[in-house]
Amino acid sequence: MTAPSALLPRPSLPRTRLPLTSLPFFALLLSCLLPLRLDATVFTWIGEAPGSTNFSGDWSDPANWLPAGWPSDPGDAASITLGALDDFTVTLDVNATISEFLLNTAVGTFAASGRTFEVGNLARIQSGDVLWSGGTWSGNRLLNQSLITVRANSTFDFDTFDQEGTLRILGHAGATSAIFTSPTGFENRGTIELTSTFGRLAEFRVTDGTLHNTPGSTVRLATGAGGPRTWQADLDNRGDFLIETNATFSKTNGTFTNRNLLQIDEDATLSITGAGQVLTQAAGTLDIQGALEARLITFNFDGGILAGNPPILRDSTLNLAPESAGSGDFILRGNVTFNGDIHEGQSIEVQGSSTAGNAILTSPNGLTNHNLLVLTSIFGRRSELHVTEGVFTNPAGSTVRLAAGAGGERRWWAELENDGDFFIETNSTFSKTNGTFTNRNVLRIDEGATLSIDHNNQTLVQASGILDIQGALEVRNITFNFDGGVLAGNPPILRDSTFNLAPETAGSGDFILRGNVTLNGDINEGQSIEVQGTSTAGNAILTSPTGLTNHNLLVLTSVFSRRSELHVTEGVFTNPAGSTVRLAAGAGG
């Protein structure tokens, strides 16, 4: 990209300009380029004031214009079309209000610092450079077809801003931060660049309205010489939006929509925090080679592709549309509300952390996981899933992991229909009032991990598949239905619960019962029940309301000096041939 002439001087050439014929020549030229009023005075820059160098000079010096004088009346027009062969600068050294302005010279620069410049009709930058360092440029219409460089705190207030060339917001050592403000939205049909020649802020603001980045156009938040880049404008991106250094989106109630390419370079971070902001990935690609960190915002993934590193959302709302299926990994921290499903090719990691604390993902209306959900931590914090209404469905081929991470508990506050893989890799709790948790494929508790289910009228159903307890399953005051499939590994420990054993479960299942347990069904072939008095649960009482047949093994024992009892309310206890009952010593009682 060509650098502005005010920053990168061109080689010095002899003081020469193309021959001029007469004033009517310039009037004719302007009439072709600007819709001048009939009573307008056309001032053409000649740069011949005494002491001028290379046709440079001040706006207010009459000797620099033809006719003599300078554009200062609301009806005047200014034409800087000098055909010089070397660089020159026209400096706006006064505030001015005119009708028309034209810059059309290959080697000229129009410069202003802290000025107010109003152009009532058309201001056109056809060729040449503008260097605007603070102040306000306003009017009816600005047409930029070349290069405008903005430094310091500058406002461009036009009814229509046709941005077809390059608009550069430049943090600079002398002018400190660069802040460009447009009170109204406009279309970018060229290039907008936020950069610096010193470690300064470069900021783009649209007070009311939207920056439309049209197809084929580019916005660059460039590294330059360092310093932050801030974007304070609603965005509708249909071109290329390139974030090459650390940048912030910071627009109160702002909406940022990508429909083509929003790219965050490696080592760059885009931060979006609070203020009712909404980021929407509608189409095209959101390519995160660096980092996207959002807090207290809404992120809508409506379509297109999410590539690169997963975005990190904290204390936010995540909306996943069906059209987003195929890509998208997300890291969620703090309290995040989730609407939609986890689609094929997507994953969600709910991550407890030191800065955001415990991580809680809440789905108000049920959730289907078509790929991968992980509850984990990068610090010793809890990680939780809450489903307010409805069921969490884990279909065949999908996975849920309650992972160890860096420590902390995992809590599951959702009814469950598991037809996929559900892995409990660390200490976890199921805690959903009136919740039902049904396994039809794989529910595995790893060695060293404990799954606890306690109170709240909860029901655990082993319907089919395998319940593989390599660690521990400890339940209290719940209902456990063993309806089918295989129970492998260590025996589950049921305390003060209801235990329902279906005939279809024959072949596997060893159980430890503590406290007061009600048993419905029989002890089937290949199964055993140990009724166990303990110090914590006290005496152990197994009650069968309607009779009980033992087809394998029943043991009454203790691990502390407590009683262990069997009660059959109605009916008979039957112990057929080949079956065993042991009233064992245990630890006494």
Shape: rod-shaped
Strand content: over 45%
Q: What is the terminal-to-terminal distance? A: 89 Å
Q: Supply the number of helical segments.
A: 1
Report Rg. 37 Å
Task: Note poorly predicted spans.
Answer: 1-37
Class by helix and strand content?
mainly beta
Count of distinct strands = 56
| Biggest sheet overview | 54 strands, mixed
Percent in helix: under 10%
Would you tell me the overall average pLDDT?
Answer: 93
Descriptive notes:
The protein has 589 residues and is mainly beta. Among the domains are: 62 residues, no CATH class; 154 residues, no CATH class; 99 residues, no CATH class. It is 2% helix and 55% strand. The protein has one helix and 56 strands. It has a 54-stranded mixed sheet that branches. The protein is rod-shaped, with a radius of gyration of 37 Å. The chain starts with 22 loop residues before the first helix and ends in a 6-residue tail after the last strand. 48% of the residues are buried. The N terminus is likely disordered.
